[in-house]
Structure formats: C-alpha cells, structure tokens
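Please, structure for the following, as tokens.
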Amino acid sequence: MTPLLDFLQASGVFLAGLLVRLLFFLTILAAALVPILIVYAIARGILALHRRQQGMEDVEGLALATRRFFTKGHAWLRRQIGGRLTVGLDDLAQRLFPQLAWVELPRIGAFVREGEPAVRLRSNGREAFVPAPVTGYVVAVNHRLARKPVS
C-alpha cells in the first residue's frame, strides 16, 4: 500500500508543478499582451476620432459619411449650395475595387439618367459600371481621379 501512496503523492506533486508552471506562463503572456492591447485600443480610438472629424461614421465595419444620401448603386450624394450635388463611391464600392487601374467619367455637359451607367471602373481585371444616382447634367468631374485613380 505504501508504494501506491508514494506514487499518488509523487503524481500530485508533479501535477501541482505543471499547474504552477502553466499559471506562471499565462501570467507572463498576459503581462506581455497588455501593452500591445493598450496600444491597439489607442490606435483604434485615434482612427475613430479622425473618421468622426471627417464626418465619417462606422456602421458594421463600413465607413459611411454623415450628412450624405446613399444609393443602391453604392454611391453617395452630398447637396451643395445652388442645388448641385457631389457624387462619390461609398466605402463598400471602394473596398470591392481597392486598386483602381482605370476610371471613365462622364463628360462635362453630358446628360445622365438615374439608373443608367455613368461611370466605368476597372480594377485587377474586373470591370463595373456605376449607375447615375440622379437624372441631370454633369457640371464638373474630378480630373485627377481620371488621370490617377489610386492615390
């Protein structure tokens, strides 16, 4: 019976030693991860503050601009003084086409109808048409975007 008790006692000491080592390892790991997690949280906070200052709001992982109207065709509209509208691509469309190689914009003075293709995008062998969100005349385009789609 004594050998059995000796074996159980030795096994208990061994398991206790393993548990102490595991707890020590987890303590060291937590101590190393805490500063990393703090820096990560600060960086996310700064990014959120920067987006908020730009009028952007995070909605389920997408950056959406406040004070803008959004369309089904992944475009946004911003009303300007004088009845003009500024049109742009929403965050989802920009994520679908991250490396734009080519953008074809409508000509100034062109008449566009709501729902008809107005802008053509090409990225990594994929091509898409962005429908016009409203009916009207094009009074200005971003020529820098046509010359250099990726900045």
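Helices lie at 2-53, 91-96, 143-147. The first strand starts at residue 56 and ends at 59.
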